[in-house]
Amino acid sequence: MHGEIPARRPDVVPSTLVAVELGLTLHLTDRSIDIRDLAVEAEARGFSSLWLPEHTHIPASRRTPIPMGGLDLADEYPRSPDPYVSLAAAAALTERIRLGTGVALVAQHHPINLAKAVASVDALSDGRFTLGIGYGWNVEEMAHHGVEFRSRRAQVREHVLAMRELWTGEVGEYHGEFVDFSPSWTWPKPVRVGGPPVYIGGGAGPKMFAAVAEYADGWLPIGGAGVRAALGDLRAACEERGRDPDEVDVIPFGTLPDEGKLGYYAGLGITEVVLRLPSAPRDGVLQVLDEFTRFID
What we know:
- By secondary structure, the chain is an alpha/beta fold.
- The chain has helices at residues 35-44, 83-92, 111-124, 139-144, 152-168, 206-215, 227-241, 261-267, 282-292; strands at residues 21-25, 49-52, 98-104, 129-133, 172-175, 180-184, 198-201, 218-220, 249-250, 253-255, 272-276.
- The chain has one domain (14-295): Alpha-Beta Barrel (TIM Barrel), CATH 3.20.20.
- 34% of the residues lie in helices and 16% in strands.
- Strands 9-8-7-4-3-2-1-11-10 form a nine-stranded parallel sheet. Strands 5-6 form a two-stranded antiparallel ribbon.
- The longest helix is centred in the middle third of the chain and has 17 residues, at 152-168.
């Protein structure tokens, strides 16, 4: 993910010439651009990665406020397609662009089934899959899956650890509070030993950084605000856990680029930023995609 700062070109603002790869995310729906078209067009323009969020469904009656406040939920949420099926379709038509969930609600899946789906997409993409995960916010959505809001973090942790057991060896087993299975076989195995990278999305805090340090490969700060102030705490959490902080990726997620922001992130040692596209039909998305290409060398 590291690159050299390219030579200055007269038609590009100098602050945009930074050694930062640019990924993309959007809230895919049945009304938005087709994921197959987006993946092909994004790869052709040199974007590094493509990430899709997940909501299994949205209960029609809901008391849980959205993270931004209020109860009004955008139409994209109940129209979210399955990200694993969508990314498998994208994998079939691309060769280089990395594909990820941003973020997957892993507590709402049985880990044996999810381990199979993730490994299958990873194998089909020749190891280009990244599992971005989150704890979730919609109490009613979780409840339909039998997930208690207060225990969702612990359940996510066990699901990730259990999936890694199935991905790593020929035989995997796990015995925990939420997940319990005896030695079992499952194929395919992911391309990378131990499974694809796992990144946790969410806001900064002691619980987040303890989880990243224990069982994740990186942190996805949603929106990208407050990263500088949080990096020291993340580093301390990794060192307390005995991990090398330099091995943990930080990828600002769902940001909108401007002339100085990417240079700012590069100055922090960040090597990839995921930009937010609108959930719109093909022409509208490709117009924004073309606007974003000016930030790519």
